[in-house]
Known about the structure:
By secondary structure, this protein is α/β, with parallel strands linked by helices. The protein is built from 11 helices and 8 strands. The protein has helices at 44-52, 79-83, 94-108, 120-131, 156-162, 170-184, 193-207, 210-223, 227-230, 250-259, 280-300; strands at 4-9, 14-21, 28-32, 56-60, 113-118, 136-142, 237-242, 264-268. Helix 1 (44-52) packs across helix 11 (280-300) and helix 6 packs across helix 7 (193-207). The longest helix is centred in the last third of the chain and has 21 residues, at 280-300. The protein is globular and about 55 Å long.
Amino acid sequence: MSIEKATNVGPGKIEIAYERFGSADAPPVLLIMGLGMQMNAWTDGFCEELVRHGLHVIRFDNRDVGLSTHMKNAPLPNLGAALMGDVSSASYTLSDMAADTVGLLDALGLESAHLVGASLGGFIAQTTTLEHPARVRSLTSIMSSTGSPAVGQAKPQGLQVLAAPPATSREEAIERALATFRIIGSPGFEFDAEAVAERAGVAYDRGHDPLGQMRQLLAVFASGDRTPRLRSIKTPTLVIHGAEDVLIDVSGGRATAEAIPGAQLEVIDGMGHDLPRGLWPKVASSIASLVKRVESAKGATK
């Protein structure tokens, strides 16, 4: 298990840092993380939980975070203008991030994979499924939404987190992460302050880039509402959302499941906008059940 880099990925010809867990002969599950978050937000323990279910797990840094390409020559993102409807400062869209995802599959020699996206990662996974359906065996959308402004909006305490200025030091980044996850985390499960602090410190060391996070956020604004298109998805889909999510309200998960024909919805009591250790077995089991059902059906048609 070591970090590798794929080069000339997708139409953007960028570098993507990734890491693999489990046997390459097992069904591949590609984990896509959320806004400003690096691959280590998919914790080793959660990845190993999926491996115990017989899966080949791949996690990676999206563009503009961690060890993947940072779009440093892009226009300065103007969030204020974007909030007023002017997204001209967006340097890319969710479609570009979906193309990165498919480009990574190409680099890994994978014709298709099971996609699991959390938060912004769910937006990317949905977009990949819409625009590259042959490359997606199943879709799991966690703590995510449809892009419609009518659903999935942050509660006041979630908006407080989004409005916080970027950290200017490693110590501040750790303090900010602890404060953030105490607000948006899962009230029904134990808060692991030591693990949150460790991940935040590692992420800061690997590539602290507040403008990169802003560029990712503008990609969301520039991509609009996916609801009408989601109705065309035929890929087997699982939607997981926390009942206590203050960053993306559970209405976003419900709307996603309602829009995608046949989607299975799991709303988890006590879950917020994170994946605490206490939820790893349940979430991993749900993902693995979908994967195994799809793989069994695929084998039956051969």
